[in-house]
Design goal:
The chain is of the alpha+beta class. It has one domain (6-181): Aminopeptidase, CATH 3.40.630. Helices cover 29% and strands 35% of the residues. The protein has 4 helices and 8 strands, in the order ββααβββαβαββ. It has an 8-stranded mixed β-sheet with strand order 1-2-3-4-5-6-8-7, sandwiched between helices. α1 (26-39) packs across α2. The longest helix has 16 residues, at 115-130. The chain is globular. The structure holds coenzyme A. Coenzyme A (COA) binds next to β5, α3 and α4.
Amino acid sequence: MKFEERKILLKDGRTCVLKPNSPEYAQEMLDYLRKTSAETEYLLRYPDEVKFTLESEKEILGNLLENPYAIMMIAVVDGKVAGNGSVNGIGDKRKIQHRCSLAIALYEEFWGLGIGTAMIDYMSELAGQIGWKQLDLEVVAENEQAIALYKKCGFIETGRRHNALKFDDGSFHDEILMYKDL
Ligand SMILES: CC(C)(COP(=O)(O)OP(=O)(O)OC[C@H]1O[C@@H](n2cnc3c(N)ncnc32)[C@H](O)[C@@H]1OP(=O)(O)O)[C@@H](O)C(=O)NCCC(=O)NCCS
């Protein structure tokens, strides 16, 4: 969906622009997906699982921009992509139409500057305007930084999915389930 650009002041004095992601960022998004999934184990994909072509990524970003029920927010600092966040509906069936789900990841060099907090606050605001009543997410149980961010932004822990993830090193990891009323 299209939404107003928002400028935020970071903890290091720089300015960050939060705006709708769009096809012009397709190549940067492919680089971002590969690099961020290598920088942390806490994202769902491994870098070699990023299979999109430039053309398919452009098409996906174009469709998301035109979809009034999809939030795809890019964070840009000094003209460089710092991160991306998204909110999407859980499904079309009436019984689950009130729920949406959030995902977010920043490049490591932009962690700890306040971007995550600002993105979640803005995405929550937009999700409420769309009409969703509940924002859900799953986070790897060991991801303390993300859990701290979510609690700061008003999310409440509601459960735990045993052995939700199996990493390539053979280790199993639980996921924490969290929600926030919109
Ligand atoms: C998780 C992530 C999005 C957080 O974004 P961020 O911009 O670094 O977060 P913020 O700077 O807004 O910090 C928010 C809060 O997190 C906490 N926090 C920050 N760094 C932390 C750290 N290293 N350890 C524990 N808590 C930390 C603080 O409570 C902070 O609040 P404060 O600013 O009032 O002190 C970012 O670190 C990231 O992209 N990580 C890798 C991908 C990932 O794990 N995504 C989530 C998957 S579910």
